[in-house]
Amino acid sequence: MLFFKKKKKDSAVEIKAFFEGNALPLEKVNDPMFSDKVMGDGVAIDPVNGNLYAPVDGKVASIFDTKHAIGFVLDNGAELLMHIGMDTVELNGEGFDLDISVGDEVHAGELMGTIDLDFVKSQGKEIVTPIVLTAMDEYKIEFVKTEGPVNVGDVLFKICK
User: Fold this and answer.
1) Cβ–Cβ contacts within 10 Å for residue 127, how many?
2) What is the pTM of this model?
3) Among 34, 36, 42, 39, which Cα is nearest to 15's?
4) What sections of the chain are H helices per DSSP?
5) Active-site residues: which are they?
6) Residue 157 is inside which H or E element, if any?
7) Model confidence over 140-161: pLDDT tens digits?
8) Where is 72: in which H helix or E strand?
9) What are phi and psi of 90, to 5 degrees?
10) In a 3-state reduction of DSSP, which class is residue 28?
């Protein structure tokens, strides 16, 4: 009887849209570290506004000093890296206003901060933001939405062991 089956700890975790905008496959990201999946596999979003939301329920594992990249650890142990824009490390955090800290528990759809997209673009940087699963050998990805318009909370992909 499936009705009484316990929820397994290794069930799939949903990775949700963290910006409103347009999803695109990593192959279309203008940076070989992402388009060649050197960092891992995932999906990118070209945002239409700068409100940045948590993509998952999990813990903030790292925030680069320059605030352009955020690492998450999920309950199933998977690690995700969100890289806001391309070459944005060079902005030294300018235009990035994050309301989260390392060690914080976040919940999918929770506002984590704002990015001044106009400022980032005015500095000649792209705003396309990939999110990738970094430990590809341990987890599998099931893509749900990799192209077209997305709203915050739309499922981009699922990961499981």
Assistant:
1) 20
2) 0.92
3) 42
4) 32-35, 117-122
5) 83
6) strand 155-160
7) 999 999 999 999 999 999 999 8
8) strand 69-74
9) -70, -15
10) helix
Sign of the Cα torsion 99, 101, 105, 109 reads positive
Residue 122's contacts (CB-CB under 8 Å, 6 or more residues apart) are none
Distance CA 127, CA 136 (A): 25
* Phi/psi at 3 (5° precision): -55, -35
The 10 Å CB-count burial string (b at 16+, else e) for 102-121 is eeeebebeeebbebebeebe
Q: In Å, how far are 1, 76, 91, 129 from 5, measured between CA atoms?
A: 7, 19, 50, 38
Both structure tokens of 109: 């759809």
pLDDT digits (tens, 9 = 90+) for 121-137: 999 999 999 999 998 78
